[in-house]
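I need you to check the entry underneath: sequence plus C-alpha cells. Let me know what the C-alpha cell row says about the fold.

>
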Amino acid sequence: MRPSILDPLFAPVTTLAGVGPKLGKVLDKFLGDETRPARVVDLLFQLPTGAVDRRPSPSIADTPVGDVATFTARVSEHRPAPAGKKAPYRIIVEDETGDVTLVFFHADSRHLAQTLPIGAYRLISGKLELWEGMRQMVHPERILDPKLAATLPAFEPVYPLTEGIGQRMMMRTVQAAAERCPEMPEWQDPAFLAKADFPSFHAAIEALHHPVDRKAAEGDTVARRRIGYDELLASQIALALVRRQQKKIAGRATTGDGGVRFRIQSALPFELTEGQRKAIADIHADMAKPEKMLRLLQGDVGSGKTVVALMAMAAAAEAGRQSVLMAPTEILARQHAERLAPLAEKAGLKLALLTGREKGAGRKQVLAGLADGSIDIAVGTHALFQEGVAFRDLALAVVDEQHRFGVHQRLLLGSKGEAVDVLVMTATPIPRTLSLTWFGDMDISILSEKPAGRKPIVTRAVSSERYDEVVGAIGRAIETGAQAYWVCPLVQESDTLDVAAAQERYEALRDIFGDKVGLLHGQMPGRDKDAAMAAFVAGETRILVSTTVIEVGVDVPNASVMVIEHAERFGLAQLHQLRGRIGRGSAASTCLLLYKGPLGPVAEARLTIMRETEDGFRIAEEDLRLRGEGEVLGTKQSGSPDWRIARPEIDGDLLAAARDDARLLIERDPHLETPRGQAIRVLLYLFERDVAIRLLRAG
C-alpha cells in the first residue's frame, strides 16, 4: 500500500548504477538489518558529517600547507625509484610561483605516465605538507584535466564510512540516491513553511548532499531543519493517530467508594506530597472515565511513585477488578511485592508475586487466584503477560521502569483484559522534548518533590590514585554501622567483562573486610541474587559489590555510602540512578565517584554536574545536551524512534510545533482524506511511521 511515488526510494541499493553485488553486501551490512537489505532511502538519509574545501588556489605559492590544497600546475619531471630500491615514485609539478613533489608508493609507472605526462597541465587536489622544507603531496586525492575542473565540487561532502567502501565511492553512491529523489507533494502547512523560510523537501535534500560551504555540511542549516521537521511531524502524526485509536476503544469506568484507599493512606508512615496527591487524583479521574487510560507517571529517584501506583490499584480493587504491576527485573519485582504486601494486607487486599522462577504448585495456585479473581494485585516480571496467565477481570496494568517501551509495545500491554487502563512509571527524568517524542500519545503526571525527611547526598569525585584512601573511608563507615555499595565499571557494554570486574573487586575487598563483603551481578542464578540481596538488607554483609543490576529500584535504607568505580564510563542518567540507591534512610549519605584521569571534557562535565545537583530533571536535560537523544534512551532498544535526521536535543522548538500541527491536522482530517492528508500519507511511509496507516484502516 506504499504510495508509488516512493517506489524508487524503497528499491534495493543494487538498483543504483555502479552498485554491484559486492558493494551491495557492504551497504546491506552498514545500512540494512536482518529483515531487509539496504534501500535507496537509507542512503538518501545518510547525511554528510563535514565537507572538504576543494576550491582552487590561484597559485602554488598561495596553497595552504597542512590542509587540503587544490591548484593547477604543469608536470615538469618524473623521478622513478632507483632499480632494486623500495623508494617511492616522485613527480615534480610546477607553476611560475613554485613547485610541489607528488609522491606515490607502490606506483604503477605506466599508469602515472599516462595520467601525468610531462608538459601537461593538471588540476591536483590533496593534502599538502612540508618535507625537509619542500612542498609535497603523498598520493593526491584528485588529478584532473583542467577542462574537467567544473566536475570537481568546491565543497565535497564527507560521509560516514564502513569497511569495504571509500569516501569517493560513498559520495558517488549517496548522490546517485539523491538523484532518485522525486518531487514530493507538499505535506507541510504553507504558512508554516513561509514563516520558517524552509525550502521544499527536494530542494532540502539537494542542499544537504551538495553543500555550498563547510557550514552547510557541518552546521544546523535550514535544509537539515526542514527534513528534521518532516520526520518529527511524521512521528507526531503517528502518535496522534495511536492516541485517537486508544480513545476510540471503549474503556470501562473504574470507580470505587474510596474505602480501600483510605485504609492504605492511614497505614502509610508518612504524609503524601502535593505531587503525589495530584497524580493520584489525575489517575483516579482517568480510571473513572469510559475511555482507556494511557498515562506516564514520571518521578525522580525516591519521589514515591510506588505509593501512587498502589492507590491506583486500590481503586481497581474497590470496583471488584484486578491490577498488575510489572517490573523489568526479578529483584525489583520481589522488592515491590515485599514493600506493598504489608500495606495491601492492612487494606484487605490479596497480593501475589509471579515471575519466571515461580514453578509447580505455587505457580498453579497464583494462576488459579488470578483466573478466579481472588487475587487483587499481581506483581511480577514480563511473565505476567505470557500465555497461560489469565485474569478474571483486569482493570489496570502498571509498568515500572520501562521508559524504553515504544508506542507499538504499549499497544500490547492491555491484551490480558477488556479495556485495560495502562500506567507507565519511570524514575528516569525525561526532558520535555523526549517526553513529547516518546510519550506524545500519553498523558503525563510528574512527581517533582521528594518525600519529607530525605537528606541531601554529598557527592565527591575522587581520583582512582586515592583508592586506598577510599577503602579506608569505607572501613571507617561500616564500623559506625553504615552499609555501602561498591558499583563496578561498565566494560564495553559487556556483561561478561562487567562480571569479571565485579568479581575482582569483590575478592580484593574480601581480603580486607572478610565476610562483610557480598557480591551481586546479573549472571548469578536467581536464588543466589536473592540471597546476596537478603544478606545485605539484613545487615549480614556491610559492603555489596555489584554491577549496574542495582541501578533500578533496589531499596536498603541503611545503605548510606556508594562508590562508583570508573565513574567516567557512565552516562549522567545512570550515575543519578545509581546514586539514588542511597539517601533513603535517616543517616547522612555520601557518593564517591572514583575516576581514572585524565578526563575528557564530556566526562569532566558529567562529574561536575553530579557534584552540583541532585535534581534529576536538570541532570536529564544536561545528559541530553552532552550525549543526544539516542544514547539517553538507547536507540537500539525496542520501540525507539530511531531518528535519522531530527535531533530532539536541538529541535525542541520544532517538536512542539510538530505536535500542535499533528493534533490539529488529525482533528480536521482524521482519515487523511484531504489533499494535504494524502500528502501526509506519503510522509508517514517515507519515514516508516506507516503503523499509523494501519491504525487508520483499523479505525
User: Anything to note?
Assistant: The radius of gyration is 31 Å.
